[in-house]
Amino acid sequence: MSFQQPPQPAYILHSRPFRDSSLILELLTPEHGRIGCVARGARRDKQRRQQALQPFSPLLVTLMGRGELKTLGPVESAGSAYWLRGRAVYGGLYVNELLVRLLPVGESQYQVFAAYQELLQGLKALTGEDAGELLAPLRLFELKLLNELGSCPPLDYCAASQGQLESGTVYRLQRETGFVPIYRAGEDAQRADDFHGRELLGINSALRGGPLAPDLLAAAKRLTALLLGPMLGDKPLQSRELFRQVYGKK
């Protein structure tokens, strides 16, 4: 008899055809994080595919099997789908691709799941007409994801003094140790990995639940790019390429 897990909340991150009539789905669940499954016959059942197996729809899924690739059993709706508009759709697709690329398989991700739901709620409220609307919610989600993966150094901690960052000091990100103070002579150009203490403290406050102020967006983008780059490698993100094809450069 096939092992069957209790129903659990899930979102579909990605789907691809499998054999003649099935799909392979990448799911995000709180208890098992990213997990793959086969939806047998899903491509034959158009109504099921259109109504249930869509991204940004909260689901209750039953998974069967003991291997890494499960079999999808009964699927129920767990609430209304998050209907995203315009550019917000591509923001959602970008985050889905990040999760597929970065999350390990089978590890619980309760905080990531909660952050994902919060992001979808935020994206749903956007008009989708201006790419600028996406900047703050996407940067905050990236930071939360990096934090949960243990890939973001403490944003309020100086690795050199082993104490609190100073708002008026400039710090450089060193991958192995974290943020260390630097002293630039004259008008030396700021490097991409240099941050003002006030920027890091402001971003840290936003990560703890406050708003990400507009004047922090550029620093937050530099920070997440520095941290995500080595994790993603040289393979381009398809969602970014699709966004550029539709809307031009962001």
Automatic annotation (TrEMBL):
Keywords: DNA damage, DNA recombination, DNA repair
Lineage, highest ranks first: Bacteria, Pseudomonadati, Pseudomonadota, Gammaproteobacteria, Cellvibrionales
Similarity comment: Belongs to the RecO family.
Tagged with keyword Repeat: no
Function description: Involved in DNA repair and RecF pathway recombination.
The DNA replication/recombination mediator RecO N-terminal domain, residue ranges: 8-77
Identification of the protein by name: DNA repair protein RecO
UniProt-listed InterPro entries: ARFGAP/RecO (IPR037278), DNA_rep/recomb_RecO_N (IPR022572), NA-bd_OB-fold (IPR012340), RecO (IPR003717), RecO_C (IPR042242)
Signal peptide positions (record): none
